[in-house]
Amino acid sequence: MKRLYYFTKSLASVQGITGELRQAGIGENRLHVMGTDTMAIAQAHVHGTTPWEETDIMHSGFLGALIGMAAGLFGGFLLAGLDPWGANLESGAIIGATLFGTCFGAWLGGLRGVSSTNHHLSPYIDRVEQGDYLMMVDADDDLQATKVEKVMHGHRHEAEEAGREEHFSPFD
Fold it and tell me: Residue 107's Cα: distance from chain center in Å?
């Protein structure tokens, strides 16, 4: 999936561009708008960003789960190999420790991520805080990306291209 980033100065521009994107076949679930006044975005009937998109919860939670899984797997093998309580732990200890480590790591990673800005949005936050609107448009393939670029080119005086991610994923 590709993600294209554009800045606009006004909510009226966002509404006009959103309507044209819809007419071009780009669904509203593909467009996310970030601004300082979330109530104005909602009242304009524009798809705003969610905490899942604004924070780094997905990325940090996923990394936490991976690290927790590795630590749990290591701890499980350690428990099964050392046999500290004289009980025959074997594979149950490995599976249990791995599951616990994965869940605990995801929880800790999520806690860290919910308190930090999404790393994909870090380059754009300053302009959003200054009052601009960040439009993020997701495209599944080059054909959709071309449609988005065509609409945005028609609004080149209102929308400024800010960036592009060729292989966007909320987990990376």
Answer: 17
Spell out the residues 6+ positions from residue 18 whose beta carbon is closer than 8 angstroms to its own.
28, 31, 33, 46, 47
Quick: pLDDT tens for 16-72: 998 888 888 888 888 999 998 888 888 888 889 988 888 999 999 999 999 999 999
Cα–Cα distance measured from residue 99 to residue 123, given in angstroms and rounded to the nearest whole number? 36
Q: Which residues of 115-145 are buried (b: 16+ CB within 10 A; e: fewer)?
A: eeebebbeebeeebeeebbbbbbbbeeeebb
Q: Is the pTM of this model over 0.85?
A: no
Residues in a beta bridge with 163: 5
Residue 153 clears pLDDT 90, i.e. is over it: no
